[in-house]
Amino acid sequence: MLLEHLALPRLVTMPNGVPLYMLDSVDKGVVRLDILFKGDYSVQTKPLLAMFTNRMLREGAGAFTAADISQKLDFYGAWIDMYSSQNCNHITLYTMSKHFVPLLSVLEELVKHPSFPQENLDTVKSNNKSYFLVNSHKVDVVSQRYFENCLWGSEHPLGHVVEASDYDAITRDDIIGYYNDYYGSRNCSVFVSGAVDEPMLSALFAGFGEDAWGCSKVCAPNDVEDPAPHTGRRDVPVPDTMQSAVKIGFMAMDSQHPDFLKFRFLCVLLGGYFGSRLMSNVREDNGYTYHIAAELDAYGSRNAFMISSECATEYVEPLIEEVYRELDRLVNEPVDEQEIELVRNYIMGELCREYEGQSAKSEVFINAWLSSVDFSSVNRYIDEIKCVTPLDLQRLAREYFKKENIIEVVAGK
Prior knowledge:
This protein is α+β, with helices and mostly antiparallel strands and 413 residues long. It folds into 2 domains: 10-209, Cytochrome Bc1 Complex, Chain A, domain 1, CATH 3.30.830; 232-412, CATH 3.30.830.10. Helix content is 45%, strand content 21%. The protein contains 15 helices and 13 strands. It has helices at 49-56, 66-76, 100-112, 118-135, 139-152, 164-169, 172-182, 198-209, 260-271, 277-285, 316-332, 337-354, 358-370, 377-387, 390-400, and strands at 10-13, 19-23, 30-38, 60-61, 64-65, 79-84, 88-96, 188-193, 232-237, 243-251, 289-299, 302-312, 407-412. Strands 1-2-8-3-7-6 form a 6-stranded mixed sheet, sandwiched between helices. Strands 9-13-10-12-11 form a 5-stranded mixed sheet, sandwiched between helices. Strands 4-5 form a two-stranded antiparallel sheet. It is globular, with a radius of gyration of 23 Å.
């Protein structure tokens, strides 16, 4: 399958030093704008503080109330998404090109002059706490929380198991303090994808790129401190549940590691598509589960390998046994060329779909930036897929699939 290399984003450094990454497009219909602020979980003084600060930006800013902001977005048919990852706070605007300039002034107010109204904060906290309590009865969510706790260690910011009391502990003063420390041009990077003309670019420079603004502190590059993993088995009881969730994995290599791209291929072969080895064995041959997957989760430049599944409690042990059987097969038996070609074609097809839309391409490069790898790594993955060999995959399996490094978490009865 023919898959061409993607055109890389063009870097323009704005007068105040904010990097602007531009992904050009002939599509004049839609623009995606991402404003990213460094501020990883290690710098927040309380759990959830980064998330709440970012979420509260749209609850009122300058002369705008939350209702005003929603009405503006509805009027222009636009959408703003706000979320926090492990090392960055994200603000993403999706809009028609012709509405970009008027909406940019609204976005500037949100970013530069948030009011953080107490009444809205109380509502947001209550809603998020309720959602958390509901999720605390879902075995997959609970297993993920405790897998990360084992992966990073209890003292690590990424290993903290969130509790309901963490929601109650957040105050408006906490949010204002975090905002004043980390929201500003010194911690900001901007991505824009779509057909951006001169008036739109001028408005972007005027709003975010001319003078220095905000924040008193500067975060380090996109990275997190070293983990202190707890390997072995951990069982987490979840009452009143019909199934158990299983997580099996370990801390893998950094995104810059020379093995990383081919290890991604190995993950797909093991459990990344419907015909993968885990799906064929655990679902199709044995009927232990409806779905099982292997993937790499990114935490800045670090990556965790994880196999995930849910099953009836009586199938937990045989499911785990079959997982290790498949890991051992990869260690002891070379993968045949026919299977490699099948996986290669699958990945190429998925990449064609993933790279089809302009917004999706932007997501690909933002993820590369968050992982502290150069943008050309996106195209190197295509090259690595084309040349992976049975010896490559067996070497990776022997080097990384070691029982002594593996974490097992089972959440359920």
